[in-house]
Design brief:
Blueprint: E1 10-11, E2 25-26, H1 27-32, E3 46-50, H2 51-67, E4 71-72, H3 82-90, E5 96-98, H4 101-110, E6 114-120, H5 124-135, E7 139-144, H6 147-155, E8 162-167, H7 180-192, E9 196-202, H8 211-230, E10 237-242, H9 248-255, E11 264-269, H10 281-285, E12 299-310, E13 313-316, E14 331-336, E15 342-344, E16 348-353, E17 358-362, E18 372-376, H11 381-384, E19 389-393, E20 399-404
Parallel strand pairs: 3-19, 4-11, 5-6, 6-7, 7-8, 8-9, 9-10, 10-11
Antiparallel strand pairs: 1-2, 3-12, 12-13, 12-18, 13-17, 14-15, 14-18, 16-17, 19-20
Helix pairs in contact: 6-7, 8-9
The chain binds pyridoxal-5'-phosphate.
């Protein structure tokens, strides 16, 4: 079992969502106090993570991967939270995926045993550091989709070679070679360059609009891998990696199993958003709408009604600095009146946000200033990065732990 190095942290006046003047309080001490969310040292808005939902989601994806013989490298950029990395590794994850050199550096500091940089990297400074770390035994993979990329990696190689995944993309998508011919020429460049070795093929289907498109693209990724094998470019042990949180059923359908004769194949899934799930786009897009299983939304932001200035409108102290707005606005879930009674937030809808305000349209009895609203979020990746410390709550709203993020 890997035991990560998790920095000792404390809560103080710098910690958004906490009202902690004076001397800093260590995380362990804070968690041991078992504060209630309401009446504890918190100030609105505050984003919390539901413990039961995090546990459920981590176990759901671990079971999915085990059932389909997938290795799992959850995308770390979603949370950048070593306590969640630890929980994912404890549940059997193979390693952690990163998006940038800085995230790789953070993962390395935490002691993550295997790091998959699911991205091209051409920065010589970062590559030189990586070359040295690989020489010191770091298990690391990264992408290339151009001969320039391969040359940059090769130039930074140290004693041990970089293990490179050639990236296969799709038209209208992000990076990745668009044709098998291009993929083959980049793969040839990897095998020819000093200090690089070809580890396999990578793709990402998360930007595609629907299941048939994702399935078709992943089928092409499989065929492209088979072509590289036919060309004699792939080693015996091959890695194929794909997968976010929207189409992991398609990854299993298209890429699980023994479809690459003559090779030991490891298929690595990279879902990240699944860990907290959401009340927005991922609720709509999760494969668990199509296959048995479920995820629970873990993130909730509690914010206070500060003004009810005209009929049909409530202003709430929650804005772009606190809640994601790039893939859907916050979703009102529950209303907590000043007397402590909690009601479903029926008839409430967020129509816009400013830096620190949300415009909530009200149909029906309006909330009053001082009431609290609990919001779900849409898009976990742009929620976690807005909060350095996230209280973990149990089902009685008792704070049992704190999650520190490192973006
Ligand atoms: C290359 C890559 N892999 C995996 C993921 C994880 O996808 P998700 O956030 O849907 O879990 C992402 C997310 O953007 C990504 O860019």
């Amino acid at each position: 079992m890997t035991s990560l190095t998790i920095p000792a942290e404390h809560v103080d006046w710098r910690t958004k969502g906490f009202l902690q003047p004076g001397a800093p309080v260590a995380f362990e001490e804070f968690a041991a106090a078992r504060h209630q969310l309401f009446g504890g040292p918190f100030t609105w808005p505050v984003m919390v993570a539901r413990e039961s939902a995090l546990k459920h989601n981590i176990s759901a994806l671990a079971s999915f991967c085990a059932a389909h013989d997938l290795a799992f490298a959850p995308h770390g950029k979603t949370t950048m939270a070593p306590t969640l990395f630890q929980a994912q590794l404890d549940a059997g994850a193979w390693g952690i995926t990163a998006a940038t050199a800085n995230q790789v550096l953070a993962c390395r500091e935490f002691g993550v045993p295997r790091i998959l940089l699911a991205n091209e990297l051409l920065d010589p400074t970062a590559l030189r550091w990586l070359g040295d770390e690989i020489g010191r035994g770091m298990e690391f993979l990264l992408y290339a989709d151009s001969v320039e990329g391969v040359a940059a990696i090769s130039a930074a190689a140290g004693e041990r070679p970089f293990r490179v995944l050639v990236e296969f993309g799709h038209r209208g998508g992000r990076s990745g070679c668009r044709t098998v011919e291009e993929l083959t020429s980049v793969a040839r460049a990897v095998t020819a360059a000093p200090g690089t070795e070809l580890a396999g093929v990578a793709g990402y289907e998360g930007g595609l609009p629907d299941v048939p498109a994702a399935g078709a693209y992943l089928g092409l990724l499989r065929d492209a891998t088979a072509e590289l094998s036919k060309a004699g470019l792939l080693p015996r042990d091959v890695i194929v990696t794909a997968g976010g949180s929207a189409y992991f059923d398609q990854v299993a359908e298209q890429l699980s199993g023994a479809w690459l004769p003559g090779h030991e194949l490891t298929v690595i899934l990279r879902s990240g958003a699944y860990v907290s799930h959401d009340d927005g786009i991922y609720t709509q897009r999760t494969p668990f709408t199509r296959i048995p299983g479920s995820l629970d939304a873990a993130l909730e932001i509690w914010a206070q009604v500060t003004s009810v200035p005209e009929p049909g409108l409530a202003i709430v102290g929650l804005g772009k600095r606190e809640a994601p707005y790039d893939a859907g606005l916050p979703v009102p879930l529950r209303l907590r009146r000043r007397d402590g009674s909690v009601h479903p937030a029926g008839g409430l809808r967020v129509t816009d946000t400013n830096d620190h305000h949300a415009y909530v349209m009200v149909e029906g009895p309006p909330p009053r200033p001082g009431d609290l609203l609990c919001f779900g979020i849409s898009h976990p990746c742009t929620a976690f990065d807005k909060w350095q410390v996230i209280p973990v709550v149990d089902d009685d709203e008792t704070v049992t732990d704190l999650i520190r993020t490192y973006f």
